[in-house]
Design goal:
Layout (H helix, E strand, L loop, with lengths): L4 H66 L2 H11 L4 E2 L4 E2 H18 L3 E8 L4 E7 L5 E3 L12 H7 L7 E2 L3 E2 L1 E2 L2 E2 L5 E11 L2 E11 H4 L2 H6 L4 E6 L4 E3 L8 H4 L15 E4 L2 E11 L2 E10 L1 H51 L17 H98 L5 H28 L7 E4 H18 L3 E6 L3 E4 L1 H21 L6 E7 L2 E6 L6 H4 L19 H12 L3 E7 L2 E7 L5
Parallel strand pairs: 18-20
Antiparallel strand pairs: 1-2, 3-4, 3-11, 4-5, 6-10, 7-10, 8-9, 10-11, 12-13, 12-16, 14-15, 15-16, 17-19, 20-21, 21-23, 22-23
Length: 650
Amino acid sequence: MKISLSLKVAIGTFFVAGVGVLLVSIISYSEMSDYVKKNLLDSLHSELKSDAKQIQKDIEAMKKDVRLLAQNEKIDAIYRAMKNRYNYDAKSNETLSSLKRELGKNFQSLLAHSDAYFNIRLIGANGDELVVSLKDSQGRVRTEKESALQNKGNREYFKEALLLNKDDIYVSKINLNKEHGVFSIPYIPTMRIALPVYQEGKIFAIVIINANVDKLFSILATKASSEEELYIANEDGYYIYHKDKGKTFGFDLGHGHKISDDFDLSRESYFEGSSAYAHQKLFIKEGKYIILALKTSDKFLKEQSWQLQKKLGFYIFFITIFIALFSLLLMRYLISPIVQLTQKAKKISSGESEVQIAFEVLDRNDEIGALSHSLQLMLERLENSKKEIEQKVLERTKELHELNENLEKIVQEKTQENIKQLETLQEQSKMASMGEMIGAIAHQWRQPLNEISISIQNLKYDYEDGLIDAEFIDAFIKKNKEIIKFMSSTIDDFRNFYRVDKTREVFDVREAIEKTLSLQMAQLTNNNISILISGESFEVEGYRNEFLQVILNIINNSKDALLAKGIENAKIEIELEGHSIFIRDNAGGIPESLIGRIFEPYFTTKEQGKGTGMGLYMSKMIIEENMQAKLSVRNIENGVEFRMDFNEKR
């Protein structure tokens, strides 16, 4: 389907405008998101300050209560009664026991009215409890009997409270409550507020209120049903309030959960992932503080973002449509002269240039007019150059025809020359391999010929000793036939080794290698060269005898290098791994300056007259051209490694 230029421009403008509006929208959205995030963090930080004020207010209320208790006239009466030898207070006309009961009732009254308080004590300056009122887990209040009272002189909060000046209030760290040295069950996160009571210029006793922090801090109940999560940690970073109770009071319970695991304390407020974080220190007394932290999801941000995305999407779509329609109308108006020029250019391209085409209708004082004038000039020049081009084409055609005839002859000559050169290279390589193999056969035959010679020499002595009979003759013939059969088999192997393969076949790699080694083993053994083959065999497809020649070439190269360098403990290792063959020796390797050239024709590292330089060149051709595999070489520790990869197709 043909699309007009004006429509293409409109479509292009639609996409360009869409991308432009989209980029502006993305930038606006990003800025708006940052703005919303900043507002959310400011709001979170402000709320955290409000929570801190509420907690401070709760602590101040507790301080107010301990002051009221310390001003109770019953405590003064108890002091006077304890000084009296009969434990009697003449001013109030009451005994010490009755005064303690009355004070205990006052303590119970405060416990009953405060859900957070669970223990109020009056402790003497010597650490002995004078009055203890408490609230059990069911909310029942009572005053402890005299027999149940303890000495709290070794408690940290008592020792610190004794150091206070008059009217100074002690605020403890928040930890788990203990009774008789054992944590209360269920665990009670406890804050203690204490105030010393002075009599006659000395501390007579200390009033202490124990409060359950989970109930004392009223903000905790509010946060329990909120999307925001409040966390509280002590000044050492251990959680004292966490939605997961198992992470609190690590310093008491022996685990290491800290607020630094969940909050970056180097930043007061920040966004991470989909959540907002904020924290601050709340000083509950000089030198003592707790850490408050808030975490909230970005639900509000997501809601705002979704609304913004919908609006931006609506604006993008309609603004882009408007721009595209406006562009379409504008382009049609501007492009109409170009359409006329296009029609005239079509006539020229269709061969109508000989017909006079009028361009005057587009005689305008702008770029389109200039284009019209240029087309008119182009048409005139085309007519003038047409005849020249036709003449030159005729001349060039004649030259090309003559060149083509000569080129075909040259190609044929070069092809025949390359074929002859390749055949010569193959013959040279084959002759070199045959020389190596003849040497191997000589070693193979030396031992059996020696055995036959010795056997013949001994025949005369056996005859003189009268040992020759029919059985002796049969054994003599059988033994020498076996030796001759072995020698004949060696010749057959040699003949088959150089038989020209006519067809490709699938053959076993290890079996082929072992056949090659069987022809060379005597020569290798005679030169004290050990050879080891390892690994699991695999099958490949190709010309088997050509593959044997490659193995022979590489083994002979390693043998020559080992002998030339006089290597002690000379060895050649052949390893089969996957679909690769590794042939390694310990002959010291090839100089790095030469190793890159060893596959070049006529290049050899051997002494003059001892190598043709064709063996490795033909080996690489056989492996890579005929067997579609890869042959490579590299130096290894103390030697060289040839590698054939049959799973890497070329």
